[in-house]
Amino acid sequence: MSRLDLAGKLGILADAAKYDASCASSGAQKRDSKGGKGIGSTTGSGICHAYTPDGRCISLLKILLTNACIFDCHYCINRKSSNTRRARFTAKEVVELTLDFYRRNYIEGLFLSSGIIQSPDYTMEQIVEVARSLRQDHHFRGYIHLKTIPDADPALIHAAGVHADRVSINIELPTREGLTRLAPEKSEPRIEGAMDGMKTAILDGKDARKRYRHAPRFAPSGQSTQMIVGADAATDRDIVGRASGLYQRFALKRVYYSAFSPIPDASAVLPLKRPPLMREHRLYQSDWLMRFYGFAPAEVQAAANDNGMLPLDIDPKLAWALKFRDAFPVDVNRAPREMLLRVPGLGTRAVKNILAARRHRSLTLADVGRMTTSIIKLRPFLIAADWRPVALADREDLSALVKPKSVQLELF
């Protein structure tokens, strides 16, 4: 095989990184290079965005250190037995690429993951060396997100948090049974042990910052994880429960969901078809309900059908509202914030505006309509100064009335 140049490696390893969904830059600490020292910058609201060929929105140079791997996870395109072209960066090459791309104004940060080569410790050393060199040798002030390896020495995983804004430790699959079946070389206890150790280190870092003003920051944007959806038999109800447990036990910033994508020469234990991408979208919406709308995990799970799957044709909040119609209609002029957030079609910003506006006057249906994108979905579920949905609320076919209409897309 001919020796690859840097551009060739970049083409292979950037494409191989597209399966990592957890590359958001939200929550980064504010840094800049004022005063003439250092290079790069980041802000608390995130950095500039780019789009990958498959439509995913990213904001970082997103690459693998290598797509070679000593593990043979059935669902992974980079597994040991996969017939795919391999490439590998050195730590120095990743550093040079990051700085070069930044100077060209292509990116403002780095997302770095890797397959496992030689050993978990060796691979983790290379990943940490990239972040160390950027921070210490080149005074890089931009955003760095590192994927860590649970089997690596805890000291190496801790070193990643010293230099990175955010670290990720992938849970891989929603259930232990699925992990044992599809990735037998990986261990759920080891993965969770690494996540728990990172949680402790982050909390210790925050405590040190409170006590000592110049204490170094440790993974200031926290840790996240990612799980593959549709590769095993886990239902949406199972996945919501698993995500909720991860948030509670490990204080995660985000759980990312990645729809399983069939791979060449796939193992016979994998499904032949990928799950609908809408399923991934519905799981993100359910995640949002738990994080920002005050829904308990059991309530989100209750929105699922009898087979444990969230409806694909309507969002989870509307599905919950249709199942628990006794909680509605909600009076927009009297109801507390918690109940307003449960009204289908009302987002957090709309609820905030309603609470502010109703202090000065009674709100009509038209007033509420001006605070949201569509009033059609709202009408059966709320009471306003000039509106009471007596007939709508009692209709047996309410589901058909509030479901979004199908629209034929045009090719041109």
UniProtKB/TrEMBL annotation:
It comes from the Bacteria. CDD domains: Radical_SAM. Keywords: Iron, Iron-sulfur, Metal-binding, S-adenosyl-L-methionine. InterPro entries: Aldolase_TIM, DNA_rSAM_put, Elp3/MiaA/NifB-like_rSAM, Endo/Exo/Phosphatase_dom_1, rSAM, rSAM_sf, RuvA_2-like. GO terms for molecular function: catalytic activity; iron-sulfur cluster binding; metal ion binding. Residues 59-286 form the Elp3/MiaA/NifB-like radical SAM core domain. Its cofactor is [4Fe-4S] cluster. PANTHER family: ENDONUCLEASE/EXONUCLEASE/PHOSPHATASE FAMILY DOMAIN-CONTAINING PROTEIN 1, TYPE II SECRETION SYSTEM PROTEIN K. This is Putative DNA modification/repair radical SAM protein.
